[in-house]
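Consider this pair:
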Amino acid sequence: MREAQRSYEANLSIIREIAEEHGIPIIENPPIARALPAGVEVDQKIPPEHFKAVAEIIGYVFRLKEKMPKRT
């Protein structure tokens, strides 16, 4: 396995662990997980070919938000 792949997987493992510790849901979608980091830099516009994937994630987040208890 290449060093870059090992580093990428180590980062994913850390992110997953932190998310689980804080009760943050994880979306399992390997094609999106591979495509977005490869094609989009931080603070850049999302390329049109990723619009559908990002829209699905945003929709999922809004549906989760509706199910969560309201904060006071």
Remarks:
- The chain has one domain: 3-67.
- The CA atoms of residues 6 and 49 lie 27 Å apart.
- The radius of gyration is 15 Å.
- Helices lie at 3-21, 30-39, 51-67.
